[in-house]
Amino acid sequence: MNLVARDQKVIWHPYTQMKNALTPISITHGEGVYLYAEDGKKYIDAVSSWWVTIHGHAHPHIAQKVAKQLQTLEHVIFAGFTHEPAVTLAERLLPLLPGQQEKAFYSDNGSTAVEVALKMCLQYWNNKGNTTKKKVLAFKDAYHGDTFGAMSVSGRSIFTNPFAELLFDVEFIDLPTAENISNLQSKISNLKSELACFIFEPLILGAGGMLMYEAKYLDQLLAACTENEVLTIADEVMTGFGRTGTFFASEQLSNRPDIFCLSKGLTGGTMPMGLTTCNAKIFEAFLSEDKLKTLYHGHSFTANPVACAASLASLDILLEPATLANIKRVEAQHRQFFEQIKGHPKLRNVRQTGTIIALEWETGNDTSYLSGLRDRLYTYFLTKGIILRPLGNIIYILPPYVISNDDLAYIYRTIQQALDEI
Ligand SMILES: *Cc1c(COP(=O)(O)O)cnc(C)c1O
Predict the structure, then answer these.
(1) Which GO molecular-function terms appear in the entry (predicted)?
(2) 398 near 51, Cβ under 8 Å?
């Protein structure tokens, strides 16, 4: 049996209706922005393999550091024990985060980083003896992950429907604009006694459709939160590590979040790892003689040394001047394409933030994720050797920073062809 036949016998793929799924493409190896399939075909990974592979595939520096760590210490229980990679990573990362972040709490992925952040905030008020601040504020189209807490604070959609009644109650708001900002601020002030925290994806809502909004209005929301004692959580799982043009998207704000959630690009996309950081205010609310004030949370693989080593290696690469130059280059290429393609009659909207550009197809009234357009576009680009996974009628490019101008030009050209042909 070939690999695909073996796969179909034993594997259940994510986000996939297995009854009529396309046959999966078997990838044998990767290098830089390219993925190589068993049949000899080469693909440009234009979505950084679900937004994680920021430096390209099989990066030699990360591979070398991971291999070395594997031969030294592969894992150790992280309660009562510590190790060099976990401490060094926290020491190097915390000062880079905007907002006087003082403590790092490790977990395994973006969803768990969000769960930890929510627990920190909800228990913060509990530890303070406040029994009314229990509600979370979030954006209507937010995406914060697939575990139950993370799903609860994400927008309600076809993905959450089967669990709707089990998700906890959240106060959802629209993205802030010049028109609604004062209403949103009043809402926060009116709900002051109920709101424990506000969780948000800064500058761009990823899975919700690459929806972009201005730092200026987010700043005004955060100011209202601070004024009304609502804790703030920046979910930078997607936006972190250069994606929006700055090291963290929150650098583009003047208000400082209390908590950050990181994952995806953290290990350079090498392996799973989540990180929740907080400032002294949060941490100190858990310091007590009273054991009930402890943060009782942990995972078997908390602070896995190999994942920490991968993160440290990824950080080395990120801090090289060449990486920032690449980020600025991708940003400038996207900007040129934006200027060229905006106003195209088949596009409802084109938007760009940093290294992400999103194009929204005009579909009349049919905008559902399940519409045939999404599958047609997906297959069209695969045929052309490009991995793009449209979110419904929204195509976006979110590439590894090392992508060449030639490969970007090829993707832009192919999108233009798709506009002509589909
Ligand atoms: C992907 C994502 C998550 C969830 O991360 P997983 O590692 O997939 O669990 C959370 N928040 C944001 C903003 C994300 O983009």
Answers:
(1) adenosylmethionine-8-amino-7-oxononanoate transaminase activity
(2) yes
